[in-house]
């Protein structure tokens, strides 16, 4: 590479990189600049409250809902969706749950079935929805 091209390349790089730095002019008398002054809250705004736009967080989903937007309710029986458990709870049958065409039952251990009347197949906590499994502490 010819020397003239190298010099030109160095000048262009130096000029480009110099734009990345910020220089503050020294204050008269050689004293350091004063610290920045914090902004004052607007009148009527309590101190400690941000004066900028406030973003609202969405309200938490209710724990009980009649149906869920993704999971269909069980084909028979009165039920409701429980967000904490992540399953439908069958109202007239204590300990019986439903999600995605599978019924779950707790009777001294977990079992599952395609019908609320059985046949029931034993499983462990890994075979049930996570919220339901943690509810029973297994």
UniProtKB/TrEMBL annotation:
Write the signal peptide boundaries: 1-24
Q: For bias kind Pro residues, which ranges apply?
A: 29-44
Q: Where is the composition biased (Low complexity)?
A: 45-55
Query: Which UniProt key words apply to this protein?
Result: Signal
Q: Where is this region: Disordered?
A: 25-81
Give the domain of life. Bacteria
> Which protein, by its recorded name, is this?
Lipoprotein
Q: Which organism is it from?
A: Pseudomonas mangiferae
